[in-house]
Amino acid sequence: MTQTANNPEPFIINIGRSLGSGGRAIGHILAKDFGIAYYDREILNLAAKESGFCAEVFERNDEKNRFLRTLGNIIPFIGGGATYYDNELSNENLFRIQSEAIRKAAADHSCIFIGRCADYVLRDNPRCVNVFITANMEDRIASVMKWNNCTAEKAQEIIEKGDSERASFYNFYSSGTWGAASTYHLCINSSVLGIEETAVLIKNFVIQKLKLPQ
């Protein structure tokens, strides 16, 4: 994506989010309002393209602290039916490849990253704004019930499992603490203002922090 004449230097918004808080929806709104790229699972495809491995390999490690077996692990390449054996293909190496894809995208154009420890990966980039979005539990449960067509009890179970996996992934790979205010520039409860107004608040914060033209 080519930067505009008024804002030639790329800027990045990194969004961490608790499950069911509307983080993805808010990210989409911000991407549209700023006219910048949006990366959620798309970053897995970028990592796959850069490395030559299929996206499924990265999905196994996506925001989960689960170690792949490094011996005898069969890794399919994109295209054809070829396989690749690599004793060094651990979760750490998959994370490194994914991180390189994040850095490359961030250096090329302004964008929003959802999760994937992007705030830590880009910790030396001064043009980043790191945001964490949560919401009241009842609102999160209602959202997950709608997405999964499930009971409130099942929704809470999904939330607890999802949050645990995200926290484990983030806390393992980064030097911060998932969801802790000190880790981010801005933490916000989307239940207070709603999805659209939360996006407006974050947009204004980004403009002020990075001194973007309005």
Describe this structure in words.
It contains nine helices and seven strands; from the N terminus they run E-H-E-H-H-E-E-H-E-H-E-H-H-E-H-H. It has a single domain, classed as P-loop containing nucleotide triphosphate hydrolases (Rossmann fold), CATH 3.40.50. It is globular and about 45 Å long. The strands form two sheets. It has a five-stranded parallel β-sheet with strand order 2-5-1-6-7, with helices on both faces. It has a two-stranded antiparallel sheet with strand order 3-4. The N terminus is likely disordered.
TL;DR?
This protein has 214 residues and is of the alpha/beta class.
Walk me through the topology.
Layout: E1 12-17, H1 23-34, E2 37-39, H2 42-51, H3 55-59, E3 74-76, E4 83-85, H4 91-108, E5 111-114, H5 118-121, E6 128-134, H6 137-148, H7 152-173, E7 186-189, H8 190-193, H9 195-210
